[in-house]
Amino acid sequence: MSQAPLEIERRFIVATIPRGLTTQPCMEIRQGYLVVEENREVRIRQRNLSCTLTVKEGRGLVRRETEVSISIRQFETLWPLTEGRRIAKNRYALTEGSHVIEVDRFSGSLRPLCIAEVEFDSVASSEAFVPPAYCTEEITGRPEYQNASLALHGLPYSDQGSIRAAALPYLIRNGELHLVLITSRNGNNWILPKGHLEKHLPRSEVALMEAVEEAGVIGVLQDFRSRCTTTNNQVHHIYPVKVSTLLKQWPEMGERKRRVFVLEKALAKLQDPNVAQCVKRMVEKLV
């Protein structure tokens, strides 16, 4: 059995849009991830009217890639399974010498991110490539800029104070789903554990850390997240955490209350109605 073909690719941040780029024809792309593991990902992608299912293995400059065509009907059947793990972008193709540079302008919550990708037929060719001036920072092999990571966790660290990473701790008791909520520091509102982004931590890790520090729960991160804008215009990236341990002592136990509520009561208790609606949609994937 032959091995999957290799993908040799370098990637760059595009800080300044190349002159005339937006006047060029572009390809609209939406893609979602069915599986995201440390060294393997399975995605579906729609490029205009063409749809594919792709398996990528490995990290860094050289990866193995297997791709098969699927019908639009098959794509739409699989698409709901990628909720919380999706990206959308417009792709432009520019020529630089003998190389084609694909410039992706991301949309939605990933705007204004713009990334250039260049594929090569050998490692030697990739090493000899001199990127144009608009390719300002190389991100080849940086996990936080992989498309799968962007789909799962959003933009890498941002100093925008309105973004929070939140945990949705849940457990099953007597066959019913329960949520773990905490009070705000003033004790007046029931909320999810959440915190500011940390520069050198993925958002999912921040959510796990806040779950321990604020709610005293240890658990397993699930493989999707949801983005929610609160009523006061904060952006929450919410990560489900299946609780394995409720700690008897934890860092903020003297500053907050912690309660385990059955789902319906938890939804009614959540102070922010936007967060409650987001959580309601998320738990449909947990039951």
Give the gist of this structure:
With 287 residues, the protein is of the alpha+beta class. 18% of the residues lie in helices and 43% in strands. It folds into two domains: 6-153, Hypothetical Protein Pfu-838710-001; 163-283, Nucleoside Triphosphate Pyrophosphohydrolase, CATH 3.90.79.10.
Provide a descriptive summary of the structure in words.
- The chain has 287 residues and is α+β, with helices and mostly antiparallel strands.
- It folds into two domains: 6-153, Hypothetical Protein Pfu-838710-001; 163-283, Alpha-Beta Complex (Nucleoside Triphosphate Pyrophosphohydrolase), CATH 3.90.79.10.
- The protein is 18% helix and 43% strand.
- It has six helices and 17 strands.
- The radius of gyration is 21 Å and the shape is elongated.
**Hey, roughly how much beta strand do the residues contain?**
35-45%
The shape, in one word, is elongated
Largest sheet: 8 strands, antiparallel, barrel
**Spatial separation of the terminal alpha carbons:** 40 Å
Q: What is the class of the largest domain in the CATH system? A: Mainly Beta
Label this structure with key terms.
single chain, 287 residues, alpha+beta, Nucleoside Triphosphate Pyrophosphohydrolase, eight-stranded antiparallel barrel, eight-stranded mixed β-sheet, 6 helices, 43% strand
Topology:
Blueprint (H helix, E strand, L loop, with lengths): L5 E9 L12 E10 L3 E8 L2 E8 L4 E9 L1 H7 L7 E11 L2 E8 L7 E7 L2 H6 L6 E4 L8 H7 L9 E11 L2 E8 L6 E2 L2 E3 L6 H13 L1 E5 L4 E4 L5 E12 L11 E5 H7 L3 H11 L4
Parallel strand pairs: 10-16
Antiparallel strand pairs: 1-5, 1-8, 1-9, 2-3, 2-6, 3-4, 4-5, 6-7, 7-8, 10-11, 10-13, 11-12, 11-17, 14-16, 15-16
